[in-house]
# Entry
Amino acid sequence: MGLLLVVEAAAMILALLVAIGYGGPDVNSFLYSIGITAVSGGILFLLGRKSSNNIAKRDGYIIVTLTWIVFSLFGSLPFMMGGFIPSFTNAFFETMSGFTTTGSSILTDIEALPHGILFWRSMTQWLGGMGIIVLSLAILPALGIGGMQLFVAEVPGPTPDKLHPRIKQTAKRLWGIYVLFTVLETILLYIGKMPLFDAVCHSFTTMATGGYSTKQASIAFFTSPYIQYVITIFMFLAGTNFTLSYLALTGN
# Structure
């Protein structure tokens, strides 16, 4: 759990860079949130470093469930720190809705939020779209032991497919496809005259099939059939089993 919080803190750094780039009032919110999340993760890691790495199926389900709850608790910090969503209940709801790619929102004036907060809001969906555990299995070798139990508990469906005998390599390939599609959609939306910031955020939420937008009117704001077609196509791709996408891309 500690290493997972470090991953979340690292993701917040990207939102911090966006906040700094736009000179928004959310810079301090991310600085405090990153500090709290990283320190908490470090403490949990030190406390659990001597625990057993043998993970049973039941352990996998418990870890995944707790991960979503804890991730949402810390993920709500940027919203609350700067008073952008001052209510804990609302901030937690917005964050949980993001990580679970539910798409429900308590916000009534989305465009009033600074760019960093909007970026983080979209990123919660993007991270949740493929799965926090799958990301961790891809980039954190320390979770390699017992990783299959976490993978089974995280990936929806009765029989999660493995693309490689090693679960770490499977996770990397799944995330590789996810990132590839996200980049392609961003480029196509930008070609369609959508501002780069909006293109990135909408690509995040399209690939997660979550629907968060940077505009109150969502994609209707852009009045562009081209943009609607691009998002529709990538929503379809995102809803397809990524194992099939991988096999298609490799010519098999």
